[in-house]
Amino acid sequence: MDIACNNKTIKLKIMDQLLQGHEMTTKVQQLLSQHGSDLGPAKDLVEKILGSINDTISSLDSFEPISPSALVTAVEGSQNASCDNDGKLEDSGDSHKKLGPKSETWTVESTLLEDTFSWRKYGQKQILNTKFPRSYFRCTHKYTQGCKATKQVQKLESEPRMFSITYIGNHTCNTNEVTPKIKPCIHHDEIITDSEEIQSPSLMTSMKEEEENHHHGSSTESDLQLVWQEMLVFEEEHHHHHEAVYGCGETSTSINGLDSADLWSWQQFSV
DNA sequence: CCCATTTGACCCGA
DNA sequence: TCGGGTCAAATGGG
Predict the structure, then answer these.
(1) What is the pLDDT of residues A34-49, one digit of tens each?
(2) What's the pLDDT score for residue A109?
(3) Phi/psi class of residue A87: alpha, beta or left (left: φ > 0; alpha: ψ in -120 to 50)?
(4) Does the keyword Transport apply (predicted)?
């Protein structure tokens, strides 16, 4: 409504676009790796592009005068970050020289649990000296398409409304053709009563319930604090420049559309 | 009935 | 041996 909200919206848009750029660049990187002829320089360039995007994400994150909704703490490679500075722009160039075929790893702290991929939970562990359990997700298409991407989600002790989401490996699946690239704005700062119809994605569901398990009757504030909003702006944005990019041919390998159905069930809101 | 989640067991590296 | 990560049978929901 006001400038603050507008800024937040703009930032989320930029962040979303950066993430899309990251995904697309990752796909290019994978394509290049498949045709390993004389594309060495191109691969190197792609890696630099990825590093640049990651740096930009970090910089954008540090530029947060208002309410933080998503911040990137560590980027790729060995999780070196989250130590000295939190994403200033000290080296905005080639700090990411050799990524190689190693699985990329980066961590995001966010109140948002969704991303553009469909995940399937395969485990949950109580980690030593931590309050909240860690959940393990793999790509839904791990076995159908051999996608190696996984992610780990853990609620932050310092800020229980936030989740530490660690992405490990890049997606090699073709879900992008099925799932539109829209990032919903899910905040835990807003309260929705139980009577409210929450079409929550599977991730949210699982994380939600584990929150409840850790309440132990301690009457803290109510959880289930999520709201889906202000994604109409994104919808329009993604309409024109995403159809061009992702609306192209898909390898019809058993993309049954069910996997993405839960993740994108909120889409009806934005149309 | 199919698919995702749950959850204890199992595996493996430090 | 311990702890983090993964497996897989049981369970539940659509």
Answers:
(1) 665 667 777 778 777 8
(2) 82
(3) left
(4) no
**pLDDT: which is higher, A164 or A228:** A164
Bases in strand B with any atom closer than 7 Å to a protein CB: 3-9
- Which residue in the block uniquely carries the two structure tokens 């058993």? A254
Contact present, A224 and A108 (Cβ < 8 Å): no
**φ, ψ for residue A259, nearest 5 deg:** -65, -40
Buried b (16+ CB within 10 A) or exposed e, A205-241: ebbbebbeeeeeeeeeeebbbbbbeebeebeeebeee
pLDDT digits (tens, 9 = 90+) for A238-268: 433 333 333 222 333 332 322 332 333 233 3
Q: Which residue is nearest to nucleotide B6 (CA to C1')?
A: A123
The reply to whether A197 Cβ lies less than 7 angstroms from strand C is no
Contacts 24+ apart (CB under 8 A), A155-160: A155/A131, A155/A207, A155/A211, A156/A109, A156/A132, A157/A130, A157/A131, A157/A132, A160/A132, A160/A211
A142 touches strand C (CB under 7 A): no
Of A63, A264, A269, A270, the C-alpha closest to A177 is A264
| Domain spans, chain A | 64-82+96-263
In Å, what is the separation between the CA of A143 and the C1' of C7?
14
- Structure confidence at residue A207 (pLDDT): 55
Q: Identify which has the larger pLDDT, A58 or A202.
A: A58
Residue pair A89/A131 in contact by the 8 Å Cβ criterion? no
Q: What is the pLDDT of residue A57?
A: 67
Distance in Å from C5's C1' to A189's CA comes to: 32
Length of chain A: 271
